[in-house]
Design goal:
The complex is a heterodimer of chains A (275) and B (296). By secondary structure, chain A is an all-alpha fold. Helices cover 76% and strands 0% of the residues of chain A. Chain A is globular and about 75 Å long. The relative contact order of chain A is 0.13. Chain B has 296 residues and is an all-alpha fold. Classes of the chains: A mainly alpha (275), B mainly alpha (296).
Chain lengths: 275, 296
């Protein structure tokens, strides 16, 4: 064994392990994509294979029904709740970071505690309350998603605002810049990375969430996760169509992941890693 | 920018905080109170709580002695302990092994994030297909062994399949957290130990792991809370079956409200789950509270 090889062997082992793991992560996703292009016969006839004559039939079939309408609903819910969460959340994070006020501690604590509230726990009371106050359809869904996403967004953006030196606003205040101008003109533009991370996480929840969507929507206001879920039928599953629907719902999160992996990782590790 | 400013500026922080407070009050806080209230009544879906249906606290004794609830708790406990333990061991092990500059690391991290970003319902359906006894790829790949288990129809194998799915989805999270922790370590300590002749395992065991402890505690608590909150993957993958074999606690809460339509039962269990997640959440904040900052 030459010394050079002795030195590079652990490195090779590292690389091999890393890419093997990447393979483990990717194969199930590839299986979904492959199956979405298969005919029912190709799926059931022989063993699983990545090599076959692809067909677009599954996509054609699912897009024939109401599916496109559900895509539209999901886009509306995702975009509106993301924008609302970002605006409202940033404002609150700014208040928590830059001001001392009565109730600040309570607000900070309850925000942090409410962050982990299980959606299943919310489902029952929300169903009752929304019925009582007549909040239904997409609007009702949007309000829940904004509420559900606010704690994390506030948490994340608080960290980003804390990193902006106070002197920035203080020196602007000397020149007569008030807290509102200070927020919109000085702070917001500096928060772009934080807003990107928070926006991706918020959109992801609104786009992916199944439980609340299943109880708050009907045939016309349904969003994608529940529409996809309903492809499971007791009488048997059309795997091709199911996987095609799965691919369609996975596309936006996949695009975000490839575009903004750095922000996502910053969001995932936020609060745990300082600096 | 301090509160010492006179006059109207005292109201400024409330202007900024009020919209968030209002939305969280109606969307999170009020529903929690409503859950507490509903837990005292035995009502069905669509019924209003009436005085006849009032049960008070007896419902807690009732639900907690219900065999299906106990089964669900045991399943959840098994699930949470198994997945969190395995994810931590594999995730931290990999981070220690792959620490340092590896070509393509940013691509790898992007790939590792994918299972967490796609819809849980999607994850559930993918693995439902993977484990399908007839058409599924796993049995197809196992065919040379002659072992063709009916994964999702067997109680133990179904729970195993659900655990494997969670491990697939969230080990990357532990890995990313641990890697971030390792990158934040003071490298001079490791260097000093190396100069003093410490072996690799000694550096890992006596220096890196202790320094990683805070971040590992956070990761552990976050994973535990998530394991208790999650239901969508299992809902899509097994619907809790076969029987009650994979009916995690959250899923049981959801199904007892909207399938068997026992609202009071569901609300009482919600209160129990809320207590547990809130305690874990408070523990998380005790380890690391990003908003606790003493002001001079």
């Amino acid at each position: 064994m030459t010394p050079a090889f002795a030195r590079s062997a652990p490195r090779l082992l590292q690389m091999a392990t890393a890419w093997l793991l990447a393979l483990v992560v990717i194969v199930p996703l590839a299986v979904m994509v492959a199956t979405s292009f298969k005919t029912q016969r190709q799926i059931f006839d022989s063993g699983f294979s990545f090599f076959f004559m692809p067909t677009l039939d599954n996509y054609r079939n699912i897009l024939e029904g109401r599916f496109l309408g559900y895509v539209g609903n999901s886009i509306i819910v995702g975009v509106v709740s993301t924008l609302a969460t970002l605006v409202i959340g940033t404002m609150c994070a700014y208040a928590l970071s830059r001001f001392r006020f009565a109730g600040r501690g309570t607000l900070a604590w309850s925000t942090l505690l409410l962050r982990t509230i299980p959606p299943a726990v919310l489902a029952v009371p929300i169903y009752f309350i929304w019925n009582r106050i007549g909040l239904d359809g997409l609007g009702g869904l949007i309000v829940v998603y904004v509420a559900l996403n606010l704690p994390f967004t506030i948490w994340l953006l608080y960290g980003f605002i804390e990193q902006i030196p106070r002197e920035l606003e203080e020196s602007a205040a000397v020149d007569g810049c008030g807290p509102f101008r200070g927020f919109f003109v000085l702070i917001l533009p500096l928060l772009k990375p934080g807003l990107a991370a928070a926006g991706i996480f918020t959109f992801r929840i609104a786009w992916n969430e199944l439980v609340l969507s299943s109880i708050l929507t009907n045939r016309t206001t349904r969003t994608l996760p529940y529409a996809v879920f309903l492809f499971i039928k007791d009488t048997g599953i059309d795997w091709g169509e199911l996987m095609a629907a799965g691919v369609l719902i996975a596309i936006p999160p996949l695009i975000f992941t490839f575009m903004a992996a750095r922000q996502i990782i910053a969001g995932l590790t936020s609060g745990a890693v300082k600096g | 920018m301090t509160s010492d400013q006179p006059g109207q500026s005292r109201l400024v922080p409330y202007f900024f905080a009020l919209p968030a407070i209002a939305v969280m009050a109606i969307g999170l806080f009020y529903p929690v109170l409503e859950t507490l209230r509903l837990s005292a009544y035995e009502v069905r879906l669509g019924e209003a709580p009436t005085s006849q249906a009032f049960r008070g606290l007896t419902i807690f004794a009732e639900v907690l002695s219900d065999p299906s609830v106990q089964a669900s708790m045991l399943t959840t406990l098994k699930f949470a302990v198994i997945v969190v333990a395995i994810e931590l061991v594999i995730g931290v092990g990999l981070a220690l092994m792959l620490e340092g500059k590896i070509p393509g690391m940013s691509t790898l991290r992007t790939i590792f994030v994918l299972p967490m970003m796609i819809a849980p319902v999607c994850v559930g359906l993918i693995w439902r297909y993977m484990f399908d006894a007839n058409a599924g790829p796993i049995n197809s790949w196992l065919s040379f062994t002659g072992w063709q288990p009916a994964w999702l129809a067997d109680a133990d194998l179904a729970l195993l399949a659900v655990c494997l799915t969670d491990i697939w989805q969230f080990t990357p999270f532990v890995f990313i957290m641990a890697l971030a922790g390792l990158q934040g370590l003071d490298s001079s300590l490791v260097e000093a130990a190396r100069v003093d002749g410490a072996r690799l395992w000694q550096i890992i065991w006596y220096i890196k792991l202790p320094l990683l402890m805070p971040i590992l505690m956070i990761t552990l608590l976050m994973r535990l809370i998530d394991a208790l909150r999650g239901l969508e993957v299992v809902y899509a993958m097994t619907n809790g079956g076969p029987g009650l074999a994979t009916e995690l606690f959250s899923l049981h809460i959801y199904k007892s409200a909207f399938v068997t339509q026992r609202m009071g039962h569901s609300a009482a269990l919600s209160v129990c789950l809320l207590i547990v997640t809130t305690v874990l959440s408070a523990a998380l904040l005790a380890v690391n509270n990003p908003m606790r900052r003493e002001r001079a």
